[in-house]
Fold this sequence. Notes:
Layout: H1 2-25, H2 29-53, H3 57-85
Amino acid sequence: MLTFLAAVAVALALVMLLSLYRVIAGPSVFDRLTGLGLIGSKTIVLLVVLGAWHERVDLYVDIALSYGLISFVGTLALAKYFEVSGSGSAE
Length: 91
């Protein structure tokens, strides 16, 4: 079981790296925000997988929920900022 959880954790980390590429090289602000949202959701899943690995799912789920709320609010704040400033307008 630990081997499976380790493989899932590595796969999630690789997918997060692909999303990080979208954040860095994204052609528009909205692509970058989408990449940040993907990284946030993958981090939540990775925290739960790590919790199962360490056999402390209860603790890691609490951390994942807190991180999810912070990530969501941060994404909303960035989206609102780019909407108001107009730098994220579609071309």
